[in-house]
Amino acid sequence: MTEPRAHALSAKPPTLRIRDLSIEFARRRGPDLRVVDQVSIDIWPGEIVGVIGESGSGKTLTSLATLKMLPKQARIAEGTMHLGETSLHDRTERQMRELRGDQIALIPQDAMQALNPTMRIGRQVGEPLELHSGYGQAQAMDSAQKLLKSVHIREPETRVREYPHQFSGGMQQRAMIAMGLALNPQLIIADEPTTALDVTVQAQILKLLREIRDREGASILFITHDLGVVAEICDWVYVMRHGRIVEEGALRKIFMAPQAEYTRQLLEATPSIHTVPGTRS
Amino acid sequence: MIGLLNDFDWQRWRLVLIGGTIIGILVICALFAPWVAPYSPYDLDVVEMLQPPSAAHPLGTDELGRDLLSRTIYAARISMEVAFIAASVGLVFGTVIGIVAAYFGGFVDLVLMRFMELLFSFPAILLAVVLMASLGTSILNAMIAIGIVFIPGFARLSRAATEVVLREQYVESARAIGMSHRRIIFVEILPNILAPLLVEAAVAFSYAILLESALSFLGLGAQPPEASWGNMLNTGRGFMAQAPWLSIVPGAAIFLSVLGFNLIGDGLRDVLDPHMKE
Amino acid sequence: MSAEMIQLKNVGKVFGQRRIFGGSTEFAAVADVSLKVARGQTLGIVGESGSGKSTLLRMVLNLIHPTSGSIHIDGQNIAALTGRNEKAFRRKVQPIFQNPASSFNPRQSIGAILRAPLKVHGIGTPDSRRDRVSTLLERVGLPAEFADRHPHQLSGGQKQRVAIARAIILEPQIVLADEPTSALDVSVQAQVLELFRQTREEMGLTSIFVSHNLAVIRQVSDTVAVMRLGRIVETGTVDEIFANPKHEYTQALIAAVPDHGTIMAQT
User: pTM value?
Assistant: First the structure.
């Protein structure tokens, strides 16, 4: 690392510190397969950190590991993870459940699949409050209305009573973000939250996430395969490939002076609407 | 060859193998009945009637002194034949109707599927009894009647499976290269909907055996002196107190064959499911 | 021989469902679309979900029929195609579809999949077809041995190479592509796009390329049509559309694209 990170100079500890995390998959035959290898990631308060990689790079597994929600065949082989001062390493499933939703929120790729089609939006958005803060149903519904308003859903008082299929794709993703915000988490993990959306809707959701960072001071771990999205939203970027981090750095450095060969290839392969490749006559 | 055996995934095929062994034994008994059975199933011996199991008659004798083991083995012939033909009738006609309905859609779909629903709305045994009453009682008619009972089930299943495949782009690609309807149905659709149909066929086999037994029990299937598990059970009912083995033996045979086919069906479901593959 | 290879006049498609007890629900997926593609040119159609761009492409492929307007390919109205004419049309116009996972019959080998178009059109002998498949696989950058593999043994990028091979095996004049790279990783996407461009130039193909991705459209197109809610809101050459978008929606669309080009341009 050449340039020091502005946040690293502050007195506060990082929101999330991952050190030398390795994840292995058990296989029916042969030795375990290492899919994430010695990954270290820091996220400072109020920072939006991008982890970019193509399919199979291990970016999603890394994010699931911080929630301890890895698939059954996968296990953490080594490494430590700290959320603020607390170690996530020895936490039991039950203790992790207290953290999830409360201090770490997950915004998934496909909101339609993540929402329960038979449950009113309001109940779902207010659910974290019922689970963690002991709210009653009416009280949770009330808060859900405020949360929907905070993610700019119009007429929240009628929208809370609607079902997911009555929401457009963008509004479903807003509802998922509202649910994530319910308990004022320190860390929001967004796993390709705009991949399923149209570009105009994507632009709105990215704007909303930036606004939430500014307003709530939350840290965001942003997982994506899209360099364009990284350019729009992230402060600091990790580039992953085949389970390893090949490069990290401030946004501008990654784009202007990429060190790793792979980052350069990725930049070259990503088409931009501002540049027309030389191969075209 | 040894490598092949090592690679064979016993765990995955376990249910199919157990079911297949049971059915295999029954089929061998049925095919080679004259050699496997110790006696003729029709030989009367009034002196030996209603004998409990013994060295001479391992499963005892019936009310006319016929060897029960031999009769059960010969009855397997009828049951297997009925099961095979009835399930085949259902599979072939049902699949064709289902694919045609889904593929052509619209009016064709409406007419075919409404007719299937009409058939489906009758209780199976009642439908079979009505068909038998109009076709006459014979074992061949029993097979046809049971086969017709199966058609709507297969038709619905193949229609649903076809609709899924029709949404795949390779069907659209096939149309775009100018492939004929017939070729699309046989080359692109049929191989891709076969797995659930085979599972259903295994279950239909076991159901056919039960239905045939029920029809014979009602006197509509195999006619005496011909032995079938159903009419053997019916006869045994009258001697429940004196000779319980008369009911237990054909009952056990029905149970075993139904179990065997169901195991094959369940096993196939797992084996053919592409998501279970590594 | 007219200069326009593909010509659409006021094409519309209304999907309707009649119910048994009267009444019907109707939905206009495409409305009043007129377009022209000159011989050897590529038209990019860009639009978001629900814009009707895929429906439009399927109408040009003659897989579904317009409820109004007409489509002419090489001067011939495709609604009037029958029997032998239809076969000739199929030979001339080939699709490349989006989803590599469902583009191929999973029970057939790659070789069988590629031979099928030749068989259907009665071209060559079994041996000559085999040779042609080998040559073609190599041409799209895959080893000839891939003919014996099955679709699930191929990666997404390899499958799209096979899809391109299938599209050109009949030596068509027109190739219609529906989001052929949207399911691929960027580095693979770049290679597949390059193959598409190269093939198009070598064979002098006329093509329509449908995508939601403006950057991809910019790379492959000569002219661009922007679609929204079933209608064309703007057409123009690729430079006109991207450098000087006229319609409000086109401007919004271009502004919404997250792009690293802006960062790179800031130096």
Answer: 0.79
